[in-house]
Amino acid sequence: MGQGHFPKHALAAMGVHQSPLIECPSIYELMGCLDFKWQHIPRLQLWREHQDRDGKSTTMLESYCPEETVSILTQALSSNKVNYDGLEIPLPFNVEILKWAKETRRVLSSAKLPPHVKFYNIYGTSFETPHSVCYGSEHAPIKDLHELPFFRANYLYVDGDGTVPVESAKADGLNAEARVGVPGEHRGILCTHHTFRVLKHWLRADHDPYYNPVNDYVILPTMFEIERHQEKGLEVTSLKEEWEIIAVDRDDLDNMAGGKPLVSSISVAHVGDDQSSNEEAHATVTVHPQSEGKQHVELNAVRVSAGA
After folding, report:
1. DSSP secondary-structure letter at 17?
2. How crowded is residue 149: how many other Cβ atoms within 10 Å of its Cβ?
3. Smallest Cα–Cα separation from 215: which of 200, 202, 197, 203?
4. Which of 34, 47, 65, 119 is the most buried (most CB within 10 A)?
5. Where does the pLDDT of residue 167 fall: very low under 50, low under 70, confident under 90, or very high at 90 and above?
6. Euclidean distance between CA atoms 186 and 163, whole angstroms
7. Cα–Cα distance between 308 and 142 in angstroms, integer?
8. Which InterPro entries does the protein's record reference (predicted)?
């Protein structure tokens, strides 16, 4: 129940060649929601040609937010007609259906689940998904808005499932127990192993306390050691921790296999405000190549602090 989004083929569906769909409320419901707090606002961009008083033409790229898009669509479809059995039927942008769509969104956005009902959201990721649309070009601008439905659309893509952007899919408006993005397209996501594993995890049908539904891995802690000692005004703390990562996806295992261990280190230091105390910490992470379906990870860290 994500917020509405400007559809991929909104103008095409409202054009003459597909005009029967203009009376379909879902087209209006899928337009960019006006009161949604977008991180990246979907825009309608038009390359338009304008003439000054001297008849000189200039081409400009104009950008419209969802609220301004309504006016553009109203103008572009003001003379839109469909020929049905020899009869021309006017089909302009339907403001009344737009009002119904706004009311539908208002009702859905204000809906709340009963307190005892838990809500989980699984949404698709990793597919290019249309977000904003541009018509015309610098060399072939739009001279008359009535020509707009016949121009080829060029899309600006964001991450999503190919139909719904991640930003919109996550905006369910409910108090979700969890939201997990799964690589997959709009319908195909229902058939992925990752989705079924997440569902079983949430339903406790295959409950594994170490399973992480976000990345579809099982991370098993195999060792944890910590030691502290003081000597000559220094406090030394050492930490050693090891894990094994088990990925169910065969491709993930293949990507982890082979090669040399990956080693990464970091060091930080801090001096107290009074210059009388300081601390230093060093950590090294070693990721070993995958072997027999498992990948071993080691963390070694040491912290040294000195006080006045």
Report:
1. G
2. 21
3. 197
4. 47
5. very high
6. 6
7. 74
8. AB_hydrolase_fold
Which residues, in sequence order, are bridge partners of residue 49? 59
CA distances from 41 to 31, 38, 142, 157 (A): 12, 5, 23, 12
Say if residues 114 and 44 touch (Cβ distance below 8 Å). Answer: no
Residue-by-residue DSSP string for 268-297? EEEE-TTSS-EEEEEEEEEEPPBBTTBEEE
Residues facing residue 281 across a β-bridge: 268, 303
Closest by CA to 304, choosing from 282, 283, 279, is 279
Whole-number Å distance between alpha carbons of 61 and 136: 9
Is 308 within 8 Å of 276 (Cβ atoms)?
yes
Strand segments, DSSP code E, in the chain are 44-51, 57-64, 81-84, 87-90, 120-125, 127-135, 153-160, 178-183, 211-212, 217-231, 234-247, 262-271, 278-287, 295-306
Exposed/middle/buried for 62, CB within 10 Å: 0-12, 13-18, 19+? middle
Spell out the residues 6+ positions from residue 124 whose beta carbon is closer than 8 angstroms to its own.
Answer: 160, 161, 162, 164, 169, 181, 182, 183, 184, 185, 186, 189
Which string of DSSP letters, residue by residue, matches 156-181? Answer: EEEEEBSSSBHHHHT---S--SEEEE
Whether pLDDT at 230 is above 90: no
Q: Please state whether beta strands 120-125 and 178-183 pair in parallel, antiparallel, or not at all (unpaired).
A: parallel
- Residues 233-263: tens digit of each pLDDT: 778 888 888 767 666 554 544 555 556 788 8
Residue found under tokens 């690589």: 183
At 195, which helix (H) or strand (E)? Answer: helix 193-202
At residue 9, the pLDDT reads 41
Q: Is the entire prediction scored with pTM above 0.70? A: no
